[in-house]
Design goal:
The chain has 171 residues and is mostly beta strands. Strands 1-2-3-4 form a 4-stranded antiparallel sheet, with no helix packed on it. Strands 5-6-7-8 form a 4-stranded antiparallel sheet, with no helix packed on it. β6 and β7 form a beta hairpin. The protein is globular. The model has no long low-confidence stretch (mean pLDDT 94).
């Protein structure tokens, strides 16, 4: 019911699917395509997995539980829910796994969190209605799509400063 985000484990053995409408994340065997386990998560929108395949991070959009859900894969339990003041949209892990980025509805900035421990580090003003984020493969830049300013912001992932913008057209 209302699947949304997908991520593949770093070893390629599993696909994890965020099932927004059922408040769960499915662990799917990549070879057999069978669901092996389900994890409870409050309306997961987008998800990311740690480099060591031990943790799932979910942008949780359940009204009473908005924030970043940290789920231990071994136990299948949510160990942390770091609350956000608005509904989280997109989250993404840096290639080295040390930083987690998050956009939120009705915020014009990107939030950056450390992953060990999970805590807020800084925010970067990027443009109106930022949505999806993605790191370059070498981890040097983070790209952020801004829906209402019709551009992509490039952020230096070492200093967390805006490095440039490029117009891309409507939304």
């Amino acid at each position: 019911k209302a699947p949304h985000g997908l991520v593949v484990s770093r070893d390629g053995q599993y696909v994890f699917a965020a099932i927004f409408g059922d408040n769960q994340i499915l662990e799917i065997n990549a070879k057999s395509l069978k669901v092996e386990r389900t994890f409870e998560a409050p309306a997961p929108h987008n998800i990311a997995i740690s480099n060591d395949n031990k943790t799932i991070y979910a942008a949780s959009q359940k009204e009473s539980q908005t924030g970043i859900a940290q789920i231990d894969i071994a136990s299948g339990k949510m160990v942390t829910l770091l609350r956000t003041d608005k509904v989280p949209r997109s989250l993404n892990l840096s290639p080295d796994g040390s930083a987690l980025t998050l956009t939120q509805f009705d915020h014009n900035d990107l939030q950056v969190y450390s992953t060990n421990p999970l805590k807020f580090l800084t925010k970067v003003d990027v443009g109106e209605s930022p949505h999806h984020t993605i790191f370059t493969p070498n981890g040097k830049l983070l790209l952020v799509c801004n829906q209402l300013t019709d551009d992509v912001t490039f952020i230096d992932a070492k200093t967390w400063q805006v490095a440039g913008k490029i117009p891309v057209g409507r939304k």
